[in-house]
Write a structure and sequence with these properties.
Elements lengths: L22 E10 L15 H5 L5 E4 L19 E10 L4 E5 L4 E6 L5 E5 L1 E4 L4 E7 L8 E3 L6
Parallel strand pairs: 1-3
Antiparallel strand pairs: 1-2, 3-8, 4-7, 4-9, 5-6, 5-8
């Protein structure tokens, strides 16, 4: 089911909820293993050989190329605190999640109680998730990427 995009996140908040932030966003990374040529329009068949070889033609956020850009870009102003709920639907690749131009104030990894601070990039395994918080300090455009840059 994961290889067909059937994945998501479920958040169980602690009693009393999470501390307030200015913006919360949900981001899922996933791989799409298609038989057709890269960029070919229309419905594409699943390619099991590419999945077994871990060669996805597409590594995307929220299920589509460009899903977090243009009119769908995530927004925040200078001084605002952002919380990202980031999951990796996989099914195969580790996500080296990074926001270009930002250092994460706090990373809550894998629903654990330990937190990390001042993190540049965080690893999210297939089927895993993290809660990432940062404050926007400088105006500009910030790109969300898998820091395995051949996938960017």
């Amino acid at each position: 089911h994961d290889a067909h995009g059937m994945y998501g996140l479920i958040l169980v908040e602690p009693p009393g909820g999470l501390p307030k932030v200015d913006h919360e966003y949900y981001v899922m990374q996933g791989e799409v293993y298609t038989a057709g040529d890269y960029g070919a329009p229309g419905l594409q068949a699943f390619d099991m050989a590419k999945a077994i070889e871990e060669r996805p033609p597409y590594v995307v956020f929220n299920g589509a190329v460009g899903s977090l850009s243009g009119a769908h870009a995530l927004t925040a102003r200078v001084g605002e605190k952002v919380r990202l709920f980031v999951g990796n639907g996989g099914p195969n690749l580790l996500s080296s999640f990074h926001v270009i131009g930002e250092i994460f104030d706090t990373v809550h990894q894998e629903a654990g109680t330990a937190t990390s601070h001042n993190v540049q990039t965080t690893a999210i395994p297939p089927g895993g998730a993290a809660i990432i918080e940062f404050t926007v300090n400088t105006p500009g455009e910030y790109l969300l990427v898998d820091h395995a840059l051949s996938r960017t």
